[in-house]
Automatic annotation (TrEMBL):
It is found in: Membrane. It is a multi-pass membrane protein. This is Adenine/guanine permease AZG1. Belongs to the nucleobase:cation symporter-2 (NCS2) (TC 2.A.40) family. Azg-like subfamily. It comes from the Eukaryota. Signal peptide: none annotated. GO terms for cellular component: plasma membrane.
């Protein structure tokens, strides 16, 4: 808490929180822009470009404004030399189930947040949502990028009123623009984007009231899921912990039911 950038982040948090309380559209953007603008001034205690070799290098890159990040070294750089080895399949299976759980958790939580789920917890177009996510990951891997998948940050667009898909298309257009503005976007400090994510978590807590906290077999898995996500920095690990706990707590009931059925 002695770091000045922490307190600048707190100011950004307060700005966004106040705008949310007053139901002002663009609350997240206002906070991010303010904190980022202040951080771009050099020779201050909260600058994103300190007077160090790393800071000087970052500032020189920032001054370019326009730049295109080349992908020749990553696009199409595929290798299957280790396909016959155990660690190859171990990594493949790990990525497979982590992505499935991560995507499932993100899509359904966002659909619930937007009010799209029905009585069974499903939402319209879920099949195509998973297909789009899977196709994007394949294309992203061929280009050598990190997984092109659904992210929990989508909740900010939903919070601002996005429902029909126009928000997603608008964001896609901004991503295309960002392709040419890498120096500027790479210079947005973490203490500018941290507060919005914290407040997104606050907005998503409304789903917690639907948990049957009086039933320990439901409450414990739900709590494990919620606590493991921030501790492991992974939605997938949180879901794995919650599902695993749910299975363990219900094994006795399931076994008893089978014995009664076949007894």
């Amino acid at each position: 808490m002695e770091n000045p950038t922490f307190w600048l982040g707190v100011v950004g948090f307060v700005i966004i929180a106040y705008c949310l309380v007053k139901n002002i559209k663009g609350a997240m953007i206002y906070g991010i822009v303010f904190v980022t603008a202040v951080s771009w001034f050099r020779n201050t205690n909260v600058t994103a470009f300190p007077n160090t070799p790393a800071g000087d290098s970052a500032y020189e890159y920032f001054k370019k404004v326009f730049d295109i990040h080349k992908i020749e070294s990553t696009a199409g750089a595929l290798s299957f030399k280790s396909i016959g080895k155990g660690h190859f399949w171990e990594a493949l299976i790990t990525f497979f189930y982590v992505d499935i759980l991560d995507t499932t958790g993100t899509l359904y939580s966002m659909a619930r947040f937007a009010g799209f789920t029905d009585a069974n917890g499903d939402f319209e177009g879920q099949y195509f949502a998973f297909m789009a996510d899977a196709s994007s990951i394949v294309v992203g891997s061929l280009l050598g990028t990190s997984p092109v998948t659904a992210f929990i940050e989508s909740s900010t667009g939903i919070r601002e009123g996005g429902r029909t898909g126009l928000t997603a298309l608008t964001v896609a257009g901004y991503f295309l623009l960002a392709f040419f503005l890498t120096p500027l976007l790479a210079s947005i400090p973490p203490w500018a984007v941290g507060p919005p994510l914290i407040l997104v978590g606050v907005l998503m807590m409304r789903a917690v009231v639907e948990v049957e906290w009086g039933d320990m077999r439901e409450a414990i898995p739900a709590f494990m899921t919620m606590i493991l996500m921030p501790l492991t920095y992974s939605i997938a690990y949180g879901l794995i912990g919650g599902i695993g706990t749910y299975i363990v707590l219900h094994l006795w009931d399931w076994g008893k039911g089978l014995l009664q059925k076949h007894g």
